[in-house]
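Aim 2, interim progress: modelling of the zinc ion-bound target.
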Amino acid sequence: MICQRNDDLVDPEDACPTCGQRCIDRLIWIDDGEQVRCAACSTIYTPPMARPEGGDPDAAPTQ
Ligand SMILES: [Zn+2]
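Predicted structure of the complex, ligand included:
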């Protein structure tokens, strides 16, 4: 099953590393928001977006 709407897709770097799944409905947060389980292939991984707050100050400029 492939998502058709861009609004339901995560960023490419946050996609499943095994099957490339990007549908947000297929990527389930586990372990208190630190890891994601891909419902399509059962891979569990830590997406870049799970970085601790303040880990990348250039990512969100506050001006
Ligand atoms: Zn997958």
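The mean pLDDT is 80. Residues 16, 18-19, 21, 38, 40-41, 43 surround zinc ion (CB under 6 Å).
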